[in-house]
Design a protein that fits this description.
The chain has about 325 residues and is of the alpha/beta class. About 40% of the residues lie in helices and about 15% in strands. The chain has 10 helices and 8 strands.
Length: about 325
């Protein structure tokens, strides 16, 4: 959908790390050709993992690494840092370019005394004491290289421990989606309705989500992807995160909100290991970016920030 033209100030090249992160994803998206999608239609056996630990990457890093693989034509999605590859005796091919990923480490600080706690110490605090602890997120970026860029991969030592990257969270089982949604219904008063039609929507006026009956969905992945998309819209209500939800009346805000919802849905699906709709989501992102090339980095960066904020809001409901 076309959006109204909007002018944004050009950001400095010395912007925050997240600017570079989003810019790199867009740069790789520009290189992906329409014919490349088919090779990634079935992701059941293909998922970005660490070359040495075999741990799956999670969240937005999955998007970054999959798009990197598509753009460069890699058949493997195993990655590792330069330091780990070197310690394993590996040599990168001349001119190799890595992919930027991000992780969050956390500082735990007492709100009253400013004392720093370790995570282990926080775990053993009483619930009342934990309320006094301020959790401060510290984003950190890493550059990782695809295993196909290692020219002597058959000679390297795969038994080394990957020490550069923090441990990624394990991908949840698909069944946990139901628990996730149930907690939003209980703690957030989410209202879900099902009907005998093919339309899924969120009504800001009446504050409910309506979906087609589950048997209308051709797969569980499509069902959960659609449900999470509408739940992200639900977080934008005035009583929650108060985003612009003008709908079709305002094409620009509608287009932006759709991008927020799609990116938010994709992040939640990746968290729970739901991959069936990933390619469709990336297609949507590429199409939106192409149609909004003038201000796309600023808009997508803002949408990414809002989608993460929405996901965090939903996660907070789980802890009530």
């Amino acid at each position: 959908m076309k959006t109204a033209t909007k002018t944004f100030k050009k950001r400095s090249s010395e912007g925050p790390k997240e600017d570079r992160f989003i810019s790199k994803i867009l740069e790789n998206l520009d290189q992906v050709k329409s014919g490349d999608w088919e090779a990634y239609a079935d992701l059941s056996s293909l998922y970005p993992t660490n070359l040495f630990s075999n741990k799956r990457y999670s969240g937005i890093n999955v998007l970054a690494l999959m798009v990197d693989g598509m753009a460069k034509g890699f058949k493997s999605l195993k990655y590792a840092t330069f330091k780990s590859i070197s310690e394993a005796g590996g040599r990168l091919k001349k001119g190799s370019k890595g992919c930027l990923i991000e992780f969050f480490t956390f500082i735990y600080k007492d709100k009253e005394t400013n004392r720093n706690y370790t995570l282990q110490e926080v775990i053993y605090l009483s619930p009342e004491q934990q309320k006094r602890v301020h959790k401060i997120a510290c984003p950190k970026t890493y550059v990782v290289f695809n295993s196909e860029l290692i020219e002597n991969i058959s000679e390297i030592n795969f038994d080394i421990q990957e020490v550069d990257e923090p441990e990624a969270h394990e991908i949840e089982e698909k069944q946990n989606c139901e628990n996730f949604v149930s907690m939003i219904q209980v703690n957030g008063n989410l209202k879900l309705k099902f009907a005998l039609n093919e339309i899924a929507f969120y009504s800001p006026v009446f504050d409910f989500i309506q979906l087609p009956n589950r048997e209308y969905f051709i797969s569980s992945d499509k069902y959960y992807s659609t449900l999470f998309h509408e739940i992200i819209h639900w977080t934008g209500h005035t009583d929650r995160l108060a985003r612009e939800l003008k709908g079709h009346k305002d094409k620009e805000s509608y287009s932006f909100e759709e991008l927020v919802a799609e990116m938010g849905s994709m992040l939640i699906c990746l968290q729970f290991g739901i991959l069936g709709e990933f390619i469709n989501s990336v297609r949507y992102l590429k199409g939106w970016a192409t149609c909004n090339s003038q201000d796309r980095e600023t808009a997508i960066r803002k949408a990414f920030t809002q989608s993460k904020k929405s996901k965090k809001y939903l996660e907070n409901l789980q802890n009530k």
